[in-house]
Design goal:
Helix content is 34%, strand content 26%. It has helices spanning 14-25, 50-59, 62-66, 92-99, 112-121, and strands at 6-10, 29-33, 46-48, 69-71, 74-78, 85-90, 105-107, 126-129. It is α/β, with parallel strands linked by helices. The protein has one domain (6-129): 3-Layer(bba) Sandwich (FAD/NAD(P)-binding domain).
Length: 132
């Protein structure tokens, strides 16, 4: 059931698109306002924690994001001057079982996540707008 109010969301970044998707699923007409004329890939990338992976799954955007993400098998912290390994954590399936979702996916470039999330918006009652 559509609710009577329209909600404007400022910004088509990860947070804005996540909010827009959830609001649309709750029945609100949602309009995303973005200053950029189009979403482009920018930045060095991000790492997705299990909480982020679960959130993307709930939003219906995980399948699109997984096409561009790389799952890490381990996290290694090294000394910058010598290269010695200071700490190591096993990730992969062991961490996924422990945390209930994959751990430490690398996803680059940063703006690819909103680009992939925008695919999830097409199946909701969201619309988007850029300034003229």
């Amino acid at each position: 059931m559509a609710r009577s109010r329209t909600i404007l969301v400022a910004g088509a970044g990860i947070g804005g698109l996540a909010a827009a998707i959830e609001l649309a699923k709750a029945g609100f007409r949602t309009v995303v306002l973005e200053r950029a004329k189009k979403l482009e890939e920018i930045g060095a990338g991000i790492q997705l924690t299990p909480n982020a992976v679960r959130a993307l799954e709930r939003l219906g955007a995980l399948a699109a994001v997984k096409k561009r993400a790389v799952a890490a098998n381990a996290l290694i912290v090294g000394a910058g001057d010598s290269g010695d390994v200071l700490a190591r954590a096993t990730l992969g399936e062991e961490a996924a079982r422990r945390f209930g979702a994959p751990c430490s996916w690398s996803f680059a470039p940063t703006c690819s996540a909103p680009s992939q999330m925008s695919q999830a918006i097409s199946s909701t009652s969201c619309s988007s707008s850029t300034p003229r």
